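Technical annex, item 7. During the second reporting period the consortium partners agreed on a shared format for inverse folding records so that results from different sites could be compared directly. Each record opens with the tokenized structure and is followed by the designed sequence. A conforming record, contributed by the partner at site C, is shown below for reference.
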């Protein structure tokens, strides 16, 4: 083990399933992921497949890339993108729209016709209430409206599901409630949450994973710091440009005033020419 790796290990603190990288690592195990989806969706899934682990999608130069926590397909070719969301984000609905669009474009980029687009579900597991109605689950799909005001499903097979792990309303199973308590509080109350906790503990004790985690965390912190610095620099440049504009305006106004005092320009015209 290198000296750098030893330092990274010393800085590591165990994380819970709420952590992005931990969640993605745990869900990379089908024995953990399949029951997770079944509990969220309230239906059985025969098998799941992993086209790519922690899939990153970028489709064009200068396009924003996204790293999906868990990207999987089932036996019906339904695509699932499952994300753990711990930070409140007012743009979460638009973010979900962006993720779903990227899934579709990624499929089409491989040369498939749009009629072959797979059913897709983008699932955000939130440790807060994203909409404020204290529901356990918010299911969102596309609909069209009839003249009588009623709505009918569009049938585009694109769904977004927002799970409120801290919710209290809705017809959900006891297994669902136990899973949510585990996510929120770390409480182990049934065999499945025991499996999850055992997996989390094993990962937290893996030195190789801990080094990877700390390397990733440092890189992420650097990227965020660079983004903030870039934003501050853009702000400073905007301020400098605004100052230059203001300076030019003040110089122009002084010129008009001098011309009026010299009798070379009428006050009326000076007012007309003023910016």
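Designed sequence (site C submission):
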């Amino acid at each position: 083990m290198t000296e750098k790796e030893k330092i990274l290990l010393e800085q590591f603190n165990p994380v819970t399933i709420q952590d992005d990288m931990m969640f993605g690592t745990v869900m990379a195990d089908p024995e953990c992921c399949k029951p997770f989806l079944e509990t969220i969706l309230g239906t059985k899934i025969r098998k799941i497949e992993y086209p790519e682990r922690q899939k990153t999608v970028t489709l064009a130069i200068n396009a924003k890339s996204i790293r999906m926590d868990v990207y999987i397909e089932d036996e019906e070719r339904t695509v699932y993108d499952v994300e753990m969301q711990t930070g409140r984000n007012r743009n979460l609905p638009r973010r979900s729209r962006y993720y779903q669009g990227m899934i579709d474009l990624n499929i089409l980029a491989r040369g498939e016709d749009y009629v072959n687009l797979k059913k897709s579900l983008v699932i955000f597991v939130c440790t807060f209430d994203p909409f404020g109605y204290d529901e356990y689950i918010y299911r969102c799909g596309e609909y069209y409206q009839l003249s009588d005001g009623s709505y009918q499903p569009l049938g585009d097979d694109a769904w977004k599901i927002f799970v409120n792990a801290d919710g209290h309303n809705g017809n959900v199973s006891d297994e669902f409630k136990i899973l949510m308590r585990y996510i929120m509080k770390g409480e182990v109350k049934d065999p499945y949450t025991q499996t999850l906790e055992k997996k989390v503990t094993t990962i937290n004790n893996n030195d190789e994973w801990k080094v990877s985690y700390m390397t990733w965390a440092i890189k992420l912190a650097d990227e965020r710091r660079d983004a903030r610095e870039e934003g501050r620099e853009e702000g400073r440049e905007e301020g400098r440009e605004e100052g230059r504009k203001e300076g030019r305006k003040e110089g122009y106004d002084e010129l008009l005033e001098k011309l009026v005092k010299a009798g070379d320009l009428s006050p009326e015209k000076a007012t007309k020419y003023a910016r």
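The CA atoms of residues 108 and 114 lie 7 Å apart. The chain has eight helices and ten strands. All partners now use this format for quarterly exchanges.
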